[in-house]
Amino acid sequence: MELENLNPNVYKKSAERTVTTSEEDDSIVDPFDEREVFDLIRAINDPEHPLSLEELHVVQQNLITVDNEHNEVKVNFTPTIPHCSMATLIGLSIRVKLLRSLPPRFKVTVEITPGTHSSEHAVNKQLADKERVAAALENSHLIEVINQCIAV
Amino acid sequence: MSRLELQHTLTGHKGRVWGADWHPTNNALATCGEDKTIRLWSQEGNRWITKTILSDSHTRTIRDIAWSPCGQFLASASFDATTAIWDRKSGQFECNATLEGHENEVKSVCWSKSGSLLSTCSRDKSVWIWEVAGEDEFECAAVLNAHTQDVKKVTWHPHVDILASASYDNTIKMYKEDPADNDWTCISTLTGHTSTVWSIAFDGTGNRLASCSDDRTVKIWQCYMPGNEEGIATPDGDMVWKCVCTIAGHHTRSIYDISWCPQTGLIATACGDDIVRVFKESENSTKLAPEFEIVASQHGAHSQDVNTVKWCPTTTGLLLSTSDDGDAKIWKYEI
Fold it and tell me: Is A128 in contact with B254 (Cβ distance < 8 A)?
């Protein structure tokens, strides 16, 4: 298969998170925050390059919002090129990873960073349609590809 | 404010419960979901129990189910691209017919008032009408390709053979058979929603339709026949539907289902914010500009998205809901 984006910009990975003593104390309630959600998705593999979504700046911590109290997680992701045909697959991988990792109380919204993709609206609509996402995840070929992307 | 009193929680499905339907005459209901099974429930004393589990007929998620008006048949629509028809002629429920033809996921199924027609719709953008041709025999009477995207829901008019469908293309369409050549055609397209229309429901008269959408609004549509006294033009000599009310500002996420009770006129909605809401037409409402007020809002009705709501046809004020949390619940609307 021909690569769509031959020479993507590659960025440095962020440092590992320092675990504080209060986080290790099980008696202290530790709400979900942006860094924690970022850590869940930053190592997802790009479908075409042997690089993580973090290294390609597809996901960034400052494009994630978490409202722990209202059970809302919103992730914006930035395709490497505006015509990237992998955008839906990348969004789906982020969605699946968060569906599997976060407690079911969370409402997860995964959208393209505004203005960074030519079919932004169509991709967002598809990713937000839980019925189509459910049907896609029953497709054994597709789930295999997604599992490869999110495997660490 | 009135409220919804939780009467029963029906637990048993593994994973998301997508569809549900009350039996038309008995104190019974059916549910279906992600676990590829249909559960038939009935009330014994003060408890609802699973009487039967129907499995092994669908290989993927069962999205929707519908009882025939006589209550003898159950139809199930599945992501496996087929629709199964179940009956209990042998004494227990068996699948005696499988309707094939859709290219991919079947999203919804519905019987006409007479029970002689069945409709299905699919991700393949088409709506199919099937004629009940005899014992366990169904013939395809029409394949309607009016929508440009995934069709989410089909619903028959409560009195006459008019079919409505709702789609990912943001529109609702109506179909009727032309008596001259027995051809089914699209007679009306209802535009106004700005995102996916998930579900539609006629009122008891069939002269009004309610729709709910990913755009977080509910719309009320009024039917105008040729020669209507309001003077609404009917250029094709057929009925025209106009949006006469938009209920906005109440729902905070996608609205997945809507049910309009023919007895009480109450409208219930199922929302992605886990809330079941009930709306009632205001006293000062008029036919041309109806107004609806929210009369109940059950926060945390379920712990995840609510997928369906259905008013009970036999006991006034009973409401059934299903959710991604794996439960179905029965509520009583308390005034």
Answer: yes
Q: Give the contacts of B149 (CB within 8 A, at least 6 positions apart).
A: B125, B167, B168, B169
Q: Are B307 and B315 in contact (CB under 8 A)?
A: no
Q: Where are the alpha helices (DSSP H) in chain A?
A: 21-24, 34-41, 87-101, 120-128, 130-137, 140-150
> Average pLDDT of chain B?
96
Residue A2 is predicted with a pLDDT of 61
Tell whether the model's pLDDT for residue B131 goes beyond 70.
yes
For the record, the structure tokens of B51 come out as: 């009487």
Structure tokens given for A152: 């660490």
Contact call for B107 and A125, based on CB within 8 A: no
Q: How many residues does this entry show for chain A?
A: 152
Say how far apart CA A74 and CA A72 lie, in whole Å: 7
For A47-133, strand residue ranges (E) read: 64-67, 72-77, 107-112
For B35-63, the pLDDT digits (tens) are: 999 999 999 999 999 999 999 899 999 99
The H-or-E segment that residue B97 falls in is: strand B94-99
- Residue A151 is classified by DSSP as -
A135 and B152: CB-CB below 8 Å? Answer: no
Question: What's the rounded mean pLDDT across residues A106-130?
Answer: 97
Least confident residue range of A21-30, B17-26, B96-105, B177-186: A21-30
CA nearest to B130, candidates B147, B146, B118, B143: B118
Work out the burial of residue B144: count CB atoms within 10 Å of its CB; fewer than 13 is exposed, 13-18 middle, 19 or more buried. buried
**CB-based contact (8 Å) between B82 and chain A?**
no
